[in-house]
Write a structure and sequence with these properties.
Layout lengths: L5 E2 L23 E4 L8 E2 L4 E7 L5 E8 L12 H9 L10 E6 L3 E7 L6 H8 L4 H20 L12 E3 L5 E3 L5
Antiparallel strand pairs: 1-2, 2-4, 3-4, 4-5, 5-7, 6-7, 8-9
Length: about 180
Protein backbone atom coordinates (compact mmCIF):
# COMPACT_ATOMS: atom_id res chain seq x y z
CA UNK A 1 0.00 0.00 0.00
CA UNK A 2 1.10 3.49 -0.76
CA UNK A 3 0.05 6.94 0.35
CA UNK A 4 -0.84 8.34 3.75
CA UNK A 5 -3.18 6.17 5.74
CA UNK A 6 -3.12 3.31 3.22
CA UNK A 7 -3.23 -0.22 4.57
CA UNK A 8 -3.21 -3.74 3.24
CA UNK A 9 -6.35 -5.75 3.84
CA UNK A 10 -6.57 -9.38 4.83
CA UNK A 11 -7.87 -11.48 1.99
CA UNK A 12 -9.17 -14.65 3.54
CA UNK A 13 -12.16 -16.13 1.79
CA UNK A 14 -15.27 -17.60 3.35
CA UNK A 15 -17.12 -20.58 1.91
CA UNK A 16 -14.68 -20.89 -1.02
CA UNK A 17 -15.60 -17.56 -2.65
CA UNK A 18 -12.65 -15.42 -3.64
CA UNK A 19 -12.43 -11.70 -4.07
CA UNK A 20 -10.81 -11.80 -7.46
CA UNK A 21 -11.40 -14.50 -10.05
CA UNK A 22 -8.44 -16.81 -10.47
CA UNK A 23 -6.88 -16.02 -7.10
CA UNK A 24 -6.27 -18.77 -4.56
CA UNK A 25 -8.26 -18.91 -1.33
CA UNK A 26 -5.70 -16.85 0.55
CA UNK A 27 -4.59 -13.86 -1.47
CA UNK A 28 -1.60 -11.64 -0.88
CA UNK A 29 -2.60 -9.43 -3.80
CA UNK A 30 -2.08 -5.78 -2.83
CA UNK A 31 -5.09 -3.53 -2.56
CA UNK A 32 -5.30 0.09 -1.47
CA UNK A 33 -7.81 1.34 1.06
CA UNK A 34 -7.29 4.74 2.55
CA UNK A 35 -7.93 4.97 6.26
CA UNK A 36 -11.28 6.51 7.25
CA UNK A 37 -9.43 9.62 8.46
CA UNK A 38 -7.78 10.14 5.06
CA UNK A 39 -10.75 9.03 2.94
CA UNK A 40 -14.16 9.05 4.65
CA UNK A 41 -16.57 6.26 3.81
CA UNK A 42 -18.57 6.53 0.60
CA UNK A 43 -21.71 5.66 2.53
CA UNK A 44 -22.59 4.73 6.06
CA UNK A 45 -25.66 2.74 6.93
CA UNK A 46 -27.04 1.58 10.24
CA UNK A 47 -25.15 -1.73 9.98
CA UNK A 48 -22.13 -1.06 7.75
CA UNK A 49 -19.77 1.38 6.06
CA UNK A 50 -18.67 1.39 2.44
CA UNK A 51 -15.24 2.43 1.14
CA UNK A 52 -13.66 2.82 -2.26
CA UNK A 53 -11.18 -0.02 -2.88
CA UNK A 54 -8.57 -0.16 -5.66
CA UNK A 55 -6.85 -3.35 -6.79
CA UNK A 56 -3.27 -2.08 -7.20
CA UNK A 57 -2.30 -4.70 -9.81
CA UNK A 58 -5.18 -3.97 -12.20
CA UNK A 59 -6.35 -0.50 -11.07
CA UNK A 60 -9.88 -1.92 -10.91
CA UNK A 61 -12.08 0.02 -8.49
CA UNK A 62 -14.62 -1.62 -6.17
CA UNK A 63 -16.79 -0.66 -3.24
CA UNK A 64 -15.84 -2.41 -0.01
CA UNK A 65 -18.76 -2.90 2.37
CA UNK A 66 -17.50 -3.42 5.92
CA UNK A 67 -19.94 -5.09 8.32
CA UNK A 68 -19.02 -5.56 11.99
CA UNK A 69 -19.43 -9.14 13.17
CA UNK A 70 -22.11 -9.79 15.78
CA UNK A 71 -20.87 -9.48 19.35
CA UNK A 72 -22.15 -12.97 20.08
CA UNK A 73 -22.42 -16.01 17.87
CA UNK A 74 -25.82 -16.84 16.38
CA UNK A 75 -27.82 -19.55 18.13
CA UNK A 76 -27.35 -23.11 16.94
CA UNK A 77 -28.97 -23.59 13.55
CA UNK A 78 -29.30 -19.84 12.89
CA UNK A 79 -27.29 -18.08 10.22
CA UNK A 80 -25.92 -14.55 10.66
CA UNK A 81 -27.45 -11.76 8.57
CA UNK A 82 -24.05 -11.21 6.89
CA UNK A 83 -23.96 -14.86 5.82
CA UNK A 84 -27.52 -14.59 4.45
CA UNK A 85 -26.65 -11.39 2.58
CA UNK A 86 -23.54 -13.00 1.05
CA UNK A 87 -25.41 -16.15 0.04
CA UNK A 88 -28.18 -14.11 -1.54
CA UNK A 89 -26.00 -11.47 -3.23
CA UNK A 90 -23.53 -14.00 -4.69
CA UNK A 91 -26.36 -15.53 -6.78
CA UNK A 92 -27.65 -12.26 -8.26
CA UNK A 93 -26.64 -11.23 -11.80
CA UNK A 94 -28.57 -8.32 -13.31
CA UNK A 95 -27.57 -4.96 -14.82
CA UNK A 96 -29.78 -3.10 -12.31
CA UNK A 97 -28.41 -4.89 -9.22
CA UNK A 98 -25.06 -3.90 -7.66
CA UNK A 99 -22.64 -6.70 -8.65
CA UNK A 100 -21.06 -8.86 -5.94
CA UNK A 101 -17.37 -9.70 -6.53
CA UNK A 102 -16.58 -11.67 -3.37
CA UNK A 103 -16.01 -11.47 0.34
CA UNK A 104 -13.54 -12.14 3.10
CA UNK A 105 -13.41 -11.69 6.85
CA UNK A 106 -11.25 -11.12 9.85
CA UNK A 107 -12.06 -11.60 13.53
CA UNK A 108 -14.08 -8.38 13.83
CA UNK A 109 -15.55 -7.67 10.37
CA UNK A 110 -16.96 -9.20 7.21
CA UNK A 111 -15.85 -7.43 4.02
CA UNK A 112 -17.95 -7.58 0.85
CA UNK A 113 -16.39 -6.50 -2.45
CA UNK A 114 -19.10 -4.88 -4.59
CA UNK A 115 -19.43 -2.99 -7.85
CA UNK A 116 -18.34 0.63 -7.47
CA UNK A 117 -21.05 3.18 -8.29
CA UNK A 118 -19.18 6.45 -8.79
CA UNK A 119 -22.22 8.75 -8.74
CA UNK A 120 -23.26 7.57 -5.25
CA UNK A 121 -26.94 7.19 -4.38
CA UNK A 122 -30.15 8.79 -5.57
CA UNK A 123 -30.47 10.21 -2.04
CA UNK A 124 -27.20 12.14 -2.61
CA UNK A 125 -28.43 13.40 -5.99
CA UNK A 126 -31.76 14.52 -4.56
CA UNK A 127 -30.10 16.23 -1.60
CA UNK A 128 -27.75 18.17 -3.90
CA UNK A 129 -30.34 19.10 -6.52
CA UNK A 130 -33.49 19.30 -4.34
CA UNK A 131 -35.64 18.05 -7.24
CA UNK A 132 -35.65 15.67 -10.20
CA UNK A 133 -37.42 16.22 -13.50
CA UNK A 134 -40.24 13.93 -14.56
CA UNK A 135 -38.14 12.38 -17.39
CA UNK A 136 -35.33 11.67 -14.90
CA UNK A 137 -37.76 9.99 -12.50
CA UNK A 138 -39.17 7.87 -15.36
CA UNK A 139 -35.63 6.86 -16.40
CA UNK A 140 -34.61 5.83 -12.87
CA UNK A 141 -37.91 4.04 -12.23
CA UNK A 142 -37.44 1.89 -15.35
CA UNK A 143 -34.13 0.65 -13.91
CA UNK A 144 -35.55 0.12 -10.42
CA UNK A 145 -38.55 -1.78 -11.80
CA UNK A 146 -36.23 -3.92 -13.95
CA UNK A 147 -34.13 -4.82 -10.90
CA UNK A 148 -37.18 -5.48 -8.71
CA UNK A 149 -38.75 -7.67 -11.41
CA UNK A 150 -35.53 -9.71 -11.47
CA UNK A 151 -35.56 -10.07 -7.65
CA UNK A 152 -39.28 -10.97 -7.54
CA UNK A 153 -38.85 -13.61 -10.27
CA UNK A 154 -36.39 -15.24 -7.85
CA UNK A 155 -38.86 -14.89 -4.97
CA UNK A 156 -36.70 -12.28 -3.22
CA UNK A 157 -38.27 -9.32 -1.46
CA UNK A 158 -35.89 -6.38 -0.95
CA UNK A 159 -37.27 -5.15 2.46
CA UNK A 160 -35.19 -1.95 2.50
CA UNK A 161 -35.93 -0.13 -0.74
CA UNK A 162 -35.13 3.58 -0.37
CA UNK A 163 -33.21 6.27 -2.26
CA UNK A 164 -30.03 5.62 -0.28
CA UNK A 165 -30.04 2.00 -1.58
CA UNK A 166 -30.37 3.06 -5.22
CA UNK A 167 -26.92 3.79 -6.64
CA UNK A 168 -25.80 5.42 -9.88
CA UNK A 169 -22.96 4.38 -12.17
CA UNK A 170 -20.83 6.84 -14.14
CA UNK A 171 -23.35 6.93 -17.02
CA UNK A 172 -26.25 7.35 -14.56
CA UNK A 173 -27.44 3.71 -14.75
CA UNK A 174 -29.39 2.93 -11.58
CA UNK A 175 -28.34 -0.07 -9.46
CA UNK A 176 -30.20 -1.57 -6.51
CA UNK A 177 -28.03 -2.51 -3.54
CA UNK A 178 -29.41 -5.85 -2.41
CA UNK A 179 -29.27 -4.85 1.26
CA UNK A 180 -30.34 -7.09 4.09
CA UNK A 181 -32.38 -10.18 3.11
Amino acid sequence: PTGPGARALPARCLHGHCIFRGVASVSTRPVHLSSPEANPSLTQGAFSRCYKLTDMSTSAVFALKVVPRARRLPSRGKVSSSSREIALHSRLRHHNIVAFHGHFADRDHVYMVLEYCSRQSLAHVLKARQTLTEPEVRYYLRGVIGGLRYLHQRRIVHRDLKLSNLFLKKKMEVKIESGRP
